Prior knowledge:
This protein is an alpha/beta fold and 346 residues long. The chain is built from 13 helices and 14 strands. Strand 1 (2-6), helix 1 (13-22) and strand 2 form a beta-alpha-beta unit. The mean pLDDT is 93.
Amino acid sequence: MKVLVTGTEGYLGCLVAAELIRDGHDVTGVDTGFYAQGWLYNGVDLGAKTLRKDIRNLSVEDVRGHDAIVHMAELSNDPLGALIPNVTYDVNHKGSVKLAELAKQAGVSRFVYMSSCSVYGVADGVVDEQSQVNPQTAYAECKAMVERDVLPMGDDNFSPTFMRNATAYGASPRMRFDIVLNNLSGLAYTTKKIAMTSDGTPWRPLVHALDIAKSIRCAITAPREAVHQQIFNVGKTEHNWRVREIAEIVGAAFPGCEVTFGDNAGDNRSYKVNFDKIASQLPGYASDWDAERGAQQLAEVFTTIDLDEATFTGRGHTRLKQLEHLMRTKQIDDQMFWTKPAGSIV
């Protein structure tokens, strides 16, 4: 199968591309290159030929001839959406819908969109794919809007599928330290202390990056009727944790780490998610990882590379810091387009 994957130089994208190539697919990547410097360790043995292009500038010819598109390249995460909400909507909503339109026009039969459980926002009880969404941020709102606009595009020749990922964690060469378990693991290794200002009571579902990759592998090869116009929460029902439990799991994986909590509520987003649908309706999918194993994986990686505090806190592995740097140095403009051609130094 010929597969176009957007965001192949991202935290998830580099893992997804390698897994799809390993499965025998012919993979082409698309990435604008914002995070090219964020390389933590040598951990991917297979890479896709990558088109250096902003998704907003893709054409029908760029996508023609592919059997499936896996769309992961958007501006993330919530702090970035708060910093530049208008551009976030332009890229994440309009850009993603345009890509789906191009795919349909070009005859691409499958479109797998990386959505997020963040669309649930604040929820009482356990939510599933039939629950009303309640996004709290520009990032989450865009995810919900893309689902709303692309789902009705499905027809006999075009099958969109929406993967609402739980909060990702786990090792990746294109590491991110601005997501909860990875961030706490970095703190545990570099400072031997996790000092939370909140009480850690909000709920978060977690899913390992390789389990997300597995869900994509299953989605693009599943029988059409299993994935056509379907939404899947990606994770495992047993892997909903309170934030304080995540901190305790991480602390246990890093000997000598002290874990403390504050007494304020902190982030008001809290949701528990049901993942029974993906386990029962997506052929071949089951979560292979849990938080304990993921934290241990990170401990082993950090020990191997001797992760230092400058790397952990630097811009290379934190989305907001890197994009603020590119904007401050005027390498990208206020619409998040590169100001000079690739390779230009003047």
